[in-house]
Amino acid sequence: MTVNRAPLRERPELLKMSHIEKTFRGDVVALKDMNLTVNQGDFISLLGPSGCGKSTALRLVAGLMRPTNGVIEWSGGQGEGDLGVVFQEPTLMPWAKVKDNVWLPYRLRGKSYFEVKDEVLQTLKLVGLERFQNAYPRELSGGMKMRVAIARAMVTKPRLILMDEPFAALDEISRHKLNNDLLALRDAVGCTVIFVTHSVFESVFLSDRIVVMAARPGRVIRELNVEAPYPRTEEFRTSADYAAFAREASDALHQAMEVAV
Amino acid sequence: MSRENAQMVEDKSVDIEEENIARKERLFAIARWTLPSLMMVLFICGWQAYVTIAQVPHYILPSPLLIAKTLVADWSLLWPAMLMTGRLTVLALLFAVIGGLAIAVSFTQSKLVEMAMFPYAVILQVTPVVAIAPLLQVYVDNAFVAALLCAWIVAFFPILSNTTIGLKSTDHNLEDLFTIYGATRWQRLRYLSAPSALPYFLGGLKIAGGLALIGAVVAEFVIGRAGTGLGLASTLLEASYRFNFGRLYAALILISVMGVAIFGLMSLISHLCLYRWHESALKRE
Question: What is the ipTM of this complex?
Answer without folding.
Answer: 0.91
